[in-house]
Amino acid sequence: MEFRKIDDYNSIYFKEVWNIYEFSFPSDERRELDQQKEIFKNNSYNFYVVFDSGKLIGLITCWDFADFLYIEHLAVKESLRGQGLGKKVIKKILKKSNKEIFLEVELPQADIAKRRITFYERLGFKLNEYKYIQPPYAPDKKPVDMLIMSYPKEITQERFSQIRKIIHKEVFIASINLTSPGSDRAPRQCDR
After folding, report:
1. For range 111-130, the mean pLDDT
2. What is the 3-state secondary structure (H, E, C) of 8-37?
3. Could you tell me which residues come within 8 angstroms of residue 155 by beta carbon, excluding any fewer than 6 positions away?
4. Cβ–Cβ contacts within 10 Å for residue 93, how many?
5. Which residues is 63 bridged to in the sheet?
6. Residue 116 Cα distances to 21, 84, 131, 149, angstroms
7. What's the pTM value of the predicted model, to 2 decimals?
8. Does residue 152 have a cis bond before it (omega within 30 degrees)?
């Protein structure tokens, strides 16, 4: 398995992985193309195209902060799902990183959300039951009720608050500001 970092939308792989990204995530849970073009400039942001045996299989995006890694998106091509490739991608990230790792998951209401949580739990992630709302990626998008999963252990309420504050400021406020250049308007405060 190989990760190839791309840092601009002119990459020869970008169009294909962007199609996977748009197909894999609802509009309220992803950036628009103009935002993506700008977010590449952020040094903490990493957009990896994932290859297995030389074949492009998907993508993973993550934010490398001072003391933790935040996995924002993971997607495998629809035709390749169910073959254990997502598991291989996460295992590689776990092996590569010596930091705490966090990611968002939807509330366990739908079967697919329950399966996703179980998938991450089998890989060693812990579900933290603290109220978390993903802020909107843009003024015209909606906030999304989520939960935070952590690796390698559950986190305290205090640590959760620290992580949430950083993610909201660095990931979501940045996205809003990209949508409205020159704007100092922050996203709606969803959870305090």
Report:
1. 97
2. CCCCCCHHHHHHHHHHHCCHHHCCCHHHHH
3. 100, 126, 128, 148, 163
4. 20
5. 45, 70
6. 17, 13, 18, 11
7. 0.90
8. yes
What CATH superfamily is the domain 2-179? Gcn5-related N-acetyltransferase (GNAT) (3.40.630.30)
Which string of DSSP letters, residue by residue, matches 65-109? -SSEEEEEEEEE-GGGTTSSHHHHHHHHHHHH--SEEEEEEE-TT
- Looking at residue 92, its amino acid is K
Q: Is 136 in contact with 172 (CB distance < 8 Å)?
A: yes
Residue showing tokens 């894999």 = 24
pLDDT tens for 132-165 read 999 999 999 999 999 999 999 999 999 999 999 9
**Per-domain residue ranges for the chain?**
2-179
- 100-106 and 68-76 strand pairing: parallel
Q: What are the residues facing 4 on neighbouring strands? A: 49
- The structure tokens listed for 48 are 């990896």
Chain centroid offset of residue 48 CA: 12
